[in-house]
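Researcher: Next entry: PalA (Paenibacillus durus ATCC 35681).
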Amino acid sequence: MVKVTVWNEYRHERNDDKIAAVYPEGIHGQIASFLKDAGLDVRTATLDEPEHGLTEEVLNNTDVLVWWGHVAHKEVRDEIVDRVHQRVLQGMGLVVLHSGHMSKIFMKLMGTSCDLKWREAGEKERLWVMNPSHPIAEGIGEYIELEHEEMYGTHFDVPAPDELIFVGWFEGGNVFPSGSTYRRGNGKIFYFQPGHESYPTYYHPEIQKVIVNGVNWCEPTKRAYPVYGRSQELETIKREVLL
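Model: Predicted structure:
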């Protein structure tokens, strides 16, 4: 069974009654609930827990980390970011949701600003499936339609993805690479754009399906992390002495 940790800064839901009404158990609680329903082994962690809930023990027992953040990216301690980064390189999967594109861990893994255009106007979004044979798109039709979402628009300052799964179109005219995959070291990364805190996006059954698929795709492979550094000879090398 895939072991999943759902991380959320958990600030909006405690500081804004309107957002708390949408996610009374926190965004992490809602995501954890449908991941559990899908048969995954799920725990949660939040920013204000000791070590942000991401102790070495927790991370060593996490196959896939799901990350949601927005207003408190800078409060995440650098040593915790380094810890997560190393685990991703070693093979832990990472699913980054919505405004997690500006999280320290995603920016460190991408090596770019990860910036974009945005607009809060409650626009309809249509997420078109660009790669219908990909496991993350399994069970999804030609597109997913959301009645209201925050607009994210190009240019999105990230490296070219290994695979582009979804492209989002917004009724204001913008488009965005809404679902992309990357590999870093032994780890697999899935970025998925929908999920503004004031909209009930994570109750949408097809959004839930994509996130479940993304978690399963990010499950670590069984291959061991490579050994780096000085290496012994595999074959006997004939050496000539130069006089």
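Model: Note for the record: The beta strands are 3-8, 41-46, 64-68, 93-97, 117-129, 143-153, 163-170, 175-184, 187-192.
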